Amino acid sequence: MKIGIKKSGIIIIGNEILNGKTIEKNSNFLCRKLSDRGIEVNEIVIIPDQKENIIEKVNLFRKKFEYVFTTGGIGPTHDDITSESIAEAFNVRLELNLHAKKILKEHYSDEAFTKARLKMAYLPENASLIDNPVSIAPGFFLENVYVFPGVPKILEIMFVEFIKTLEKGKKKFQIMLSTILSEGIIGEFVGQIQKQNLDVEIGSYPYFKKKSFGVTLVIRGYDKNSIDNVAKKIFDYIKLKKGNPKLF
Amino acid sequence: MKIGIKKSGIIIIGNEILNGKTIEKNSNFLCRKLSDRGIEVNEIVIIPDQKENIIEKVNLFRKKFEYVFTTGGIGPTHDDITSESIAEAFNVRLELNLHAKKILKEHYSDEAFTKARLKMAYLPENASLIDNPVSIAPGFFLENVYVFPGVPKILEIMFVEFIKTLEKGKKKFQIMLSTILSEGIIGEFVGQIQKQNLDVEIGSYPYFKKKSFGVTLVIRGYDKNSIDNVAKKIFDYIKLKKGNPKLF
After folding, report:
1. β-strands A67-71, A6-13 pairing
2. Closest approach of chain A CAs to the CA of B77, in angstroms?
3. CATH number, domain A173-247
C-alpha cells in the first residue's frame, strides 16, 4: 500500500522563531507544495542556529526520509551556519564553489563584493546549486538534502521552480465535508467508520465562526472508491441526524 | 552561565498541519509567552496523529528539557490520541478521571453526554488537570509534560492562566537595532563583534519593505552591560558607515 508514497521531513533553522520574534511561514508553504506534488511531509522540526543541533537533525532526517528540506541560515552573516553544518553532517569539506562565486560576483558588480557576500559561495564539496532568481545567492543540495534560504519571499519563488525537478509521488484524493453538529455528537460514529476503513484517513476539525460552530471532516486516501464510499456513509448519517452536511 | 535558565520543547500534534491544510498558530504564541516568563524554547517538532511517533517524541523531550508542552489531539474524536499516547509513554494506565468526568457532565447537562464526550475524561493515571475556561474539557500534566488542546482560541486562554503557575526563569535582555545597510556590508564587522562577545547572541535579520530594505539586528543576553556594550559598538560602526542606525 505504501509503494510510490514519498516521505519527507522539513528542518527549519532559526533562533528568531524559537524566541517568538518571527512567525514561521515557510513550513506551511512547503507542506502545500509538496502535498500537491504527491510528497508527504512526515515531520517538521524547528531548531536554533547551533551547529551540533543542525548536524544531528540532518543526519537523522536524511536516513529517515526520501527528501529533507531545510530553510534558514545560508546568508552572509556570522549566524548563517547551515552550509558549514551540512558539510560536517556529510563529512565533506566546505569549499569555495566557483560557479556560485561567479554568479554572486556578477550580481554585485555595481556594489562591493565583500567577504561577507563571498561567504555565500562557500558550499559543501560536490553540492549542486539551486537557482535563486530573487537575490541570486544560491541554495544547494547534497544527496537527498535540499537547502533553502529562510526569507519567505525568496524561498517561495525558488521552491516553485525547483519542485518541478522532483519526481511526482502518488496523489492522495481528498473529500471535505462539514456539519453543524459538534465532534461530541458525531465522534463515535465517525470513529467506527474509521476503524472499518483503515486505508482511509479521517481528520476531524472543529471550527468556530462568529455566529456558528461545527466540524469539518477531511477524508483522504490513495483509493478514490474508498474515500467516496466513506464520505457517502458519513454524509448519510449526518443527514439523518439533521446535521446539514455539505460536501466541498 | 547557564544556571537559572530553563529549557523547554514543544510538540505540535496534527496531520492537518503536515498536509498543509492548517496553518500552525500555537507555537509562536507559546514561544512569546514562555520567553516573557524567562523560559527558553529549544526545539519545536510537528508530528502526525500517530501513536508510536507521539510516544517517541514525548519520551525524548521529557528527558531533554525541563518543560515539555504538547498541543493537539485531546478532543472527543477517534483521531484524538494524545492522552492514550502519553499514558503509554509514561507506562501508566489511561483511566476515567472522576474530576474531569464531573465537570464535563455538568457542562453538557443541557445536551447529550455522549460516549465521545466522555472520552475526554480518560486521562493518564495520576494526571493533574489544567483548567479550560472556554470549552471545559481539561488539559493535564504528568511530571514535566503539559498537555493542551490544539484549537488556538482555547489553548491561548488556558495557557495565559496556566503559565502563572510556572516558576519564572532568568530574564534575557534584548536590544534591537536597524540599519539601511545590507547584511553583505555589515556582516563581517558584526561577525567579529560576535566572536569577541560570546556571552551575547547577535541575530541578523534582513527586512524588505515596499520601497526599502535593510537589516534588523537583535542583541540578546543575560548580562545587561554586555548587550549595551555590544549594541554601542555596532551602532557607532553603522553610524560611521552612514547606515542610519536606529535603536528600538
Report:
1. parallel
2. 5
3. 3.30.70.2860
pLDDT of residue B191: 96
pLDDT digits (tens, 9 = 90+) for A109-150: 888 899 999 999 999 999 999 999 888 889 999 999 999 999
Q: Which residues contact B107 (CB under 8 A, 6 or more apart)?
A: B136
* Closest residue in A to B16 (Cα–Cα): A203
Give contacts of A115 with chain B, Cβ < 8 Å.
Answer: 187-188
Q: Specify the domain boundaries for CATH 3.40.980.10 within chain A.
A: 6-165
pLDDT tens string B145-195: 999 999 999 999 999 999 999 988 888 899 999 999 999 999 999 999 999
Closest CB to A184 among B22, B48, B117: B117
Q: Are A169 and A4 in contact (CB under 8 A)?
A: yes
**B61 neighbors B194 (Cβ within 8 angstroms):** no
Residue A47 pLDDT > 50: yes
Whether A194 sits inside 8 A of B79 (CB atoms) is: yes
> From the CA of A188, how many Å to the nearest CA of chain B?
5
Residues of chain A contacting B31 with CB distance shorter than 8 Å: 17-20
For chain A, where do the domains classified as CATH 3.30.70.2860 start and end?
173-247
Q: Is A196 exposed, middle or buried (0-12, 13-18, 19+ CB in 10 A)?
A: exposed
Interface test with B, best of A31, A135, A156, A220 (most B CBs within 10 A): A31
Kindly report the nearest CA distance between residue B40 and chain A, in angstroms.
Answer: 7
Amino acid, single-letter form, for residue B112: A
Which of A27, A42, A114 lies nearest to residue B184, judging by beta carbons? A114
pLDDT digits (tens, 9 = 90+) for B15-63: 999 999 999 999 999 999 999 999 999 999 999 999 999 999 999 999 9
**Given this model, what pLDDT does residue A1 score?**
42
SS3 B172: coil
Contact B45 A45 (CB under 8 A): yes
Q: Does domain B6-165 have CATH number 3.40.980.10?
A: yes
The shortest CB-CB distance from A201 to any of B15, B22, B153 is to B15
Average pLDDT over residues A176-200: 94
Phi-psi label, residue B8: left if phi above 0, alpha if psi -120 to 50, beta otherwise: beta
